[in-house]
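Example 3.2
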Amino acid sequence: MTVIMLSIVATVALVGVVVAVTPFIMPPTECFTVTVPPSAKQDPRVRALFRTHTIIVAALTVIGMAAMAALLPQADDVSATVVMTCSTLAPALASFAFMLYARTQVQALKQAEGWTAAESRSAAFVSDDSIPQPIPLAWELLHVVVVAALAGFALLAYDRLPDQIPMHAGWDGTVNSYADKTLGTVMFPALIAAFMGLTLALAHWMILRSKRPIDPAAPATSALAYGEFARAQSIGLLVGGLVLDVTIGIPFFLSSAGIISLGAAGAVTTVGALVFAGVMVGISVKYGQSGGRSAAEMRTADGIARDDDAYWKLGVFYFNPDDPSFSVPKRFGSGWTINCANPKAWLVIGALVAASVVFSAISLKIAG
């Protein structure tokens, strides 16, 4: 099995781990997207749901890794892509399906046990000066520096590069597609870095514009925990994004010059992506989603102070016309999602989709 294949199998394993631990990293007052008192997670019926979710995801992940290890070495590009896609998506889709089932179970428990908010309109305020903040968005300008460096290197090395640039390799690392040397082909890494920088800057901006999930039952501790989580996430996005820029750009130029193979360049890029993903997973596990693990350690009160389950459709889509927030922390998973009732959010998402289409069209044209 080649380095590329091993990297892909490792990617499937990482995705499986991320999905498997998702219920465990959620805030103390959330269980399968349902608002509950922290003590509810110790209920044997709830713990059984957690175990079942983990077993299902782990089993599908192991099956996917075994299928890839057995089939990839002799599969063609199309078959290998199908195997990899199915192995990666199966744990995530199963997790979502089980979440919907578990959500109904927890909702029934919530009603039966009388887990309701003590005050339907409770509120809390914590000064920004007392909690950590995400790093400023201006730090994302470092991507511009990397893009400029990659573009400058491409111009300086243009005459020294061969007339045919390797653009695609099979799963065994053998190059199967070349493109004529043009300004576009040698600038390809800079284009990828620019697109990634734009995407990660948007993710960073969503953190800054997000609604802060302050728990009225423990306002100071929940605000502190969320602030630490958001700051760590913003730093992880920035550093990880810059690492990806470098691990995409430099190996590509080295493969273009014939110093390393395109397969080796792809392996370096995949390892860089795994490191980035691993760091983000580590942040989520350390702090919990929205700082949930830290908040649970500091929280002393039980009960529900605020219940906004009605605004979460299928547990993952936030729709609240009365909330001006652009984004909010996810209810199932790590990170943030948009307020689907905010028209501005759809404008931004639409612009990102348009940029993705343009980037894909340019990439296909460059790759020939």
